[in-house]
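User: Sequence in, structure out. Go.
Assistant: Echoing your sequence, followed by the structure tokens.
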Amino acid sequence: MSARQRKQDKAKTQEGSFHEVVSTSEGYSPNFKVAFLLLAIPRVLSAAINIMSDCDEVFNYWEPTHFLLYGFGLQTWEYSPEFALRSYAYSALHAIIAWAVTPISANKIGVYHNTRLVLGLLCALAEAYFFRSVRRCYGAAVANVTLFFLATSAGMFLASTAYLPNSFAMECLLIGFGSWMRLSTPSTTSGSRINSILCIGSVSCAVLMGTPFVIVTAVPLAFSVIYYFGLVQTIGYGVMFSSIWIGGSVVIDNYIYGYPTCAIFNTLMYNALSGGPGSQLYGVEPWTFYAKNLFANFNGIALLAVLSFVIVPFFSLLGGVKLRLPITVWHLSPLLLWFVFMFNLEHKEERFLFPVYPLICFAGALCLCVITNVIRRVLPISFSGFVGTICVLTFVVSVSRVVAMTVNYSASVSAWRFIHEQTATARGDVTVCVSKEWYRFPSSFFLPSAQVHFRYVQSDFTGQLPQPYSAHANATQVHHRYFNDRNQGDPTLFTPISECDYFVDFEPTNQVEPKLSEQLSWRVLFNQNFLDASRSPSLYRAFYIPILSPQHVVTAPYLVLQKQKSRN
């Protein structure tokens, strides 16, 4: 008992030394419930208005979920049984959520939004846990700024309700990182054990059920857990949790694909070990791609996070702040490892950075508090005044980002809402066609029934397109001749425009193809402005600036057209 008390006293002493980074008094921090409620507000808003900026979210996750619920949808080559790169376990988990919210949803669009709402609230719970962990380890000021950045950054607004394995991994890692930080200040031996188990379980879930590459961020966590928990127990629990996640995935996939397979292994083989072009088939980007995305989604927070790798240890060594430097650097290391790993991959996508978005908020908050504390030593400034000013500025820029995304790009979703309303009472089959705008289809949840068919009209795009699941009883087990791992499209799969009842299209001024809106055989039913990115300055594409943005952005009509019935 006395040994346990000594550990508690040591933990309190250590926590106090962390807290002195920014203040000499404890200060106020919201409790878990209040933090959750504060985070829930932007998450609910995100579920309502957040656009889907990644077509993979639609075709690789919403579509298989829709198929599991309703028996029809679009299938990508990754879900074809000869490749089996995606696990249906992940889609099945979300299908359960969608099924659960169906009774409180007016229609399938309601199911879609309520599912996103659940995802957002689950994210808020994980964020609140992470915030309280930062509070315990680094004190009120760093924790409060972290909470503010989590709640107000555009990056977290976009990632929190995205139906992507990267977002799922982010939420699991919020628990993992939070438990890891608590290991630094254990109050009891049992508390250290619980935190170690939580860390192992959540991180292994992020790796095996989310995206396997986040194992890069888990290296520092693994060493810490081994130190506090012991090698044998760490391996034992690691094997146990991995068996649960992999075993559950394999059982579900074996049943749905119709043969023994492991999607996790297949994904690793395709991306890292196959020797083929892999993901590079879908484009390569320079390192500036991530730099631009980080600035757009986190503005000054991202800059502070990057600077934290230098500023925090530098001023700690100089004695400008009181930190347990090795542990603090250790807590920043997963973010640095992920940046080094991701920036060096040729194929880059915005969602690949999602797993470390919370760490960007934490690192930015820590750096801001350290900088402020150092400035206070030479200038008579108020800590709360200076930090508050920076927070307000980041908030304004983040709101500008969210408004720009919503105002500039929401017309495509509005068009498909209109399609849902227009075809909900249709009798007989209806064919809704797209051409170059196929990648902005928000999912089959926006089609009221199986009688409304989504089809492609040929465009300049020559790559592989998702295709309807087979009507066969075992649709997920059917091999299709047109699916391949070389991103080669099949020109025989297109629908003649004469067979389309409705057409969804974007008509920029410089469009080379014939405009249906100018043809007598088609009638415009829906028209809403949509950003013409090729003719608008990047600053005004990324951020909404009142008065200036409407003057500088160029828009063009996003249309829903209906084929006119021929007169005899």
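User: And one key feature?
Assistant: The longest strand covers residues 522-531.
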